[in-house]
Amino acid sequence: MPHADQVRSHARWRPGWSSGRTSYAWLLGLADQPGLRRLVNEYQYALRDLPGFDLVPLEWMHILVQEAGFTDEVGDADVDRMVTAVGDRLAGSSPLTLAFHHAVVLPESLALPAEPQSSLHELRADVRAALADVLGEAAVPTEPEDTDRHVSLAHSTTEGPAIFAVATLGATAVEPTTAKVGSLSLVRLSRDHSNSEWEVITDVSFG
């Protein structure tokens, strides 16, 4: 994945979002992965004095798979049906094994791409199909403009050239790691702060 040439501030409201509003979302929570925590720590230590970026706390490490509608628009019955539908779609799947190594500069963040990307594309397609079965295809939120196939290390707080971030990441010696993920989480997602925060509603296991 190539580096972006320029960065822009991550702190902006996405369509439909406002202060205090929350959304249902399906994500892979990764805070309990020791190898990934070590890799993120190594990069964040190198980034600690780089201006223009806010580091993402380890407890909020994740990969967003699919948003599922604002909590003030999706009823409890539909939430229950979503959980069942996603569980049925994942019943025959195996836990995900994702690899992480070199960080990249994205337009709004510094991030660790997850490999293989195809596993995340397939997972998102399964979740979207399950949501369409419950909510109707037209009600399934569109994919984000910057499809999350990565773990964010830091979010940009300003606009400008990415050259110093590229140099810092390139000068940081790190070893690759893998994460084995056994479940997908349905969460109540908030974007009120510089990084996404959430409350887990339930976990759906792979297989």
Structural write-up:
The protein has four helices and twelve strands. The chain has 207 residues and is of the alpha+beta class. Strands 4-2-11-12 form a four-stranded antiparallel β-sheet.
Offer a concise description of the structure.
This protein is an alpha+beta fold and about 210 residues long. It is about 25% helix and about 30% strand.
Tags for this model:
207 residues, alpha+beta, four-stranded antiparallel sheet, 12 strands, globular
The assembly state of the depicted protein chains is single chain
Largest sheet: 4 strands, antiparallel
Structural class category: alpha+beta
Number of helices: 4
Distance between the termini: 30 Å
Average pLDDT rating: 92
Biggest sheet strand line-up:
4-2-11-12
Shape: globular
- Give the tally of β-strands: 12
Give the helix level as a range of percent.
25-40%
Beta fraction? 25-35%
Give the H and E element order: EEHEEHEEEHEEHEEE
Rg calc: 17 Å
**In terms of per-residue confidence, which ranges show pLDDT below 50 for 5 or more consecutive residues?**
none
Present the secondary structure layout.
Elements: E1 6-7, E2 22-29, H1 34-47, E3 53-55, E4 62-70, H2 76-90, E5 96-100, E6 104-105, E7 109-113, H3 117-135, E8 150-156, E9 160-161, H4 163-170, E10 177-181, E11 183-190, E12 197-205
Antiparallel strand pairs: 1-9, 2-4, 2-11, 3-8, 5-10, 6-7, 7-8, 11-12
Helix pairs in contact: 2-3
